[in-house]
């Protein structure tokens, strides 16, 4: 601080900044003001620098909170996603979706189909992460876990409130839709969730089975039809029909090690899902 500056009651200033909820300014004002004095910044520049810093910190804290609540599986990012493994999906398309603009406001949906191991969960989580970094709120959940929670809520006559609570998430990622059991009561909570979010809030669904087999998810054909109808009305569908990434990586590692790839031929989905249960890493 310059010698001519009037004395400041630093303790009182700290309290005021607390009251005003400006923790970043509280932390940095001694450094910033010293530098401003030394470099002769105009007052307005100092004020702007402090304010900019506070708002940037506020955004960072909000994103951190949103990341905490999202329960994304760790390590699944767009950077670590090999787009060349899924030639039917363009990086540019996914990058555009990650801004969230144009689809999250109108509650449009994303649906990823494909056999196990093809990267549906990874891509869904990576998009969720990017959306959070862009200021949106996301919740990632296994479909069966959420269905169970909603069922409990229904037993406690609080289903509507539980579904309304999910409204705060611009995107709800329901991973592995097809693994929900066929029990009528279970799937009707899922249907109610889908209906409640329709055209208001977005949902991303990953599923191993195509729509044609969703009758096994929703045992009542009318309910299946109504659910699919609402989901696809405003939706982008990615068909990720590729071989299991884990299996392919294992084969590549094996051939790099000099051994011939002994099972690099195409397998049926059933065979793939069996071998996908083994950890090749
Ligand atoms: P799915 O949900 O379709 O069954 P996952 O997303 O769980 O598949 O993918 C299985 C494993 O392979 C995960 O560890 C995932 O991170 C990895 N993986 C899948 N596809 C890719 C990809 N294109 N690039 C990088 N890793 C991938
Ligand atoms: Mg998955």
TrEMBL record:
Region (Disordered): 249-281
One Gene Ontology term from the biological process aspect of the record: DNA replication
Keywords: ATP-binding, Nucleotide-binding
CDD domains the UniProt entry points to: AAA
Keyword ATP-binding: yes
GO molecular function: ATP binding
Classification via InterPro entries: AAA+_ATPase, DNAC/IstB-like, IstB, IstB_ATP-bd, P-loop_NTPase
Residue intervals of the AAA+ ATPase domain: 106-238
SMART domains found in the cross-reference section: AAA
Alphabetized PANTHER family for the sequence: ATP-BINDING PROTEIN RV3427C IN INSERTION SEQUENCE-RELATED, CHROMOSOMAL REPLICATION INITIATOR PROTEIN DNAA
Family: Belongs to the IS21/IS1162 putative ATP-binding protein family.
Protein name: AAA+ ATPase domain-containing protein
């Amino acid at each position: 601080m310059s010698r001519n500056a009037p004395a400041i009651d630093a303790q009182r200033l700290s309290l005021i900044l607390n009251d005003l909820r400006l923790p970043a300014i509280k932390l940095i004002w001694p450094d910033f003001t010293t530098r401003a004095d030394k470099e002769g910044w105009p007052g307005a520049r100092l004020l702007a620098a402090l304010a900019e810093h506070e708002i940037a910190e506020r955004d960072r804290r909000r994103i951190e909170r949103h990341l905490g609540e999202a329960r994304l599986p760790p390590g699944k990012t767009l950077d670590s996603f090999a787009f060349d493994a899924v030639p039917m999906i363009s990086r540019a398309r996914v990058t555009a979706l990650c801004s969230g603009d144009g689809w999250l406001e109108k509650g449009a949906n994303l649906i990823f189909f494909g056999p196990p191991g093809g990267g549906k969960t990874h891509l869904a989580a990576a998009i969720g992460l990017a959306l959070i970094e862009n200021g949106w709120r996301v919740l990632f959940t296994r479909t069966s876990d959420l269905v169970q929670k909603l069922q409990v809520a229904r037993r406690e006559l609080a289903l509507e409130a539980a579904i309304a609570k999910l409204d705060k998430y611009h995107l709800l990622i329901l991973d592995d839709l097809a693994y929900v059991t066929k029990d009528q009561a279970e799937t009707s909570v899922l249907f109610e969730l889908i209906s409640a979010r329709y055209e208001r809030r977005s949902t991303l669904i990953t599923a191993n089975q195509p729509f044609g087999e969703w009758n096994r998810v929703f045992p009542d054909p009318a309910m299946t039809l109504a659910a699919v109808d609402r989901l696809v009305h405003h939706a982008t569908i990615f068909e990720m029909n590729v071989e299991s990434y884990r299996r392919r990586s294992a084969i590549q590692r094996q051939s790099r090690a000099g051994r011939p790839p002994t099972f690099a031929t195409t397998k049926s989905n059933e065979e793939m899902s069996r071998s996908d249960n083994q950890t090749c890493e």
